[in-house]
Write a structure and sequence with these properties.
13% of the residues lie in helices and 21% in strands. It is an alpha/beta fold and 178 residues long. Strand 1 and strand 2 form a beta hairpin.
Length: 178
């Protein structure tokens, strides 16, 4: 069976406490990781816009991920609190998130967000880097390219910014291929 994913903003102090989440069907997208992890996909773009000049803890939580100490995984915690879901995509200009850097402030890493190219399906690194539970179900990322990077940013403080990060940040090159 396929694993369903929910992008979740976490409390800054408590990495196990969800503050806000999004549900893919409300954006006419699939729930599986690689069904929606594409550059300029409206579902992923709304999460990216949330992070624009607004650093927050992010995880793309799979419903097959390991449970927390309380026996529930983050996906289940959100499902039990439907009030956390953002169900309507805010209206914003997609160009606002173009030409940005995606920055992990905890690991002091960043990458240049790939740009949309007509007729080319480019994997958006953000859902894969922040995923939790990848490899447990159908629709997950099983590619060999950059597989060691999947999930390494889960629950970290992430921001999109037009400003190039300072020299104490390391540039990474997450070029995932389906």
């Amino acid at each position: 069976m396929g694993q369903y994913y929910t992008p979740i903003i976490l409390d800054n102090e408590n990495k196990s406490l969800p503050k806000k989440a999004w549900d893919a069907p409300h954006y006419n997208n699939g729930l599986k990781l690689l069904e929606h992890s594409w550059i300029d996909n409206n579902f992923v773009a709304v999460v990216e816009h949330e992070l624009l000049n607004n650093p927050q803890r992010l995880v793309w939580a799979g419903d097959y991920a390991e449970p927390e100490s309380d026996g529930e995984n983050l996906s289940t915690k959100v499902d039990n609190k439907p009030s956390l879901y953002k169900k309507n995509a805010p209206h914003f200009d997609i160009n606002e998130i173009h030409d940005t850097y995606v920055v992990n402030h905890d690991k002091k890493e960043f990458y240049k967000r790939p740009e949309y190219q007509e007729d080319v399906w480019t994997v958006n690194p953000l859902p894969l880097l922040t995923s939790e539970g990848n490899g447990c179900g159908g629709g997950d990322y099983f590619g060999e390219a950059c597989e060691e990077m999947v999930g390494t940013w889960a629950r970290d403080t992430i921001e999109l910014t037009k400003e190039h990060p300072t020299e104490d940040y390391t540039e990474i090159f997450p070029e995932f291929e389906e």
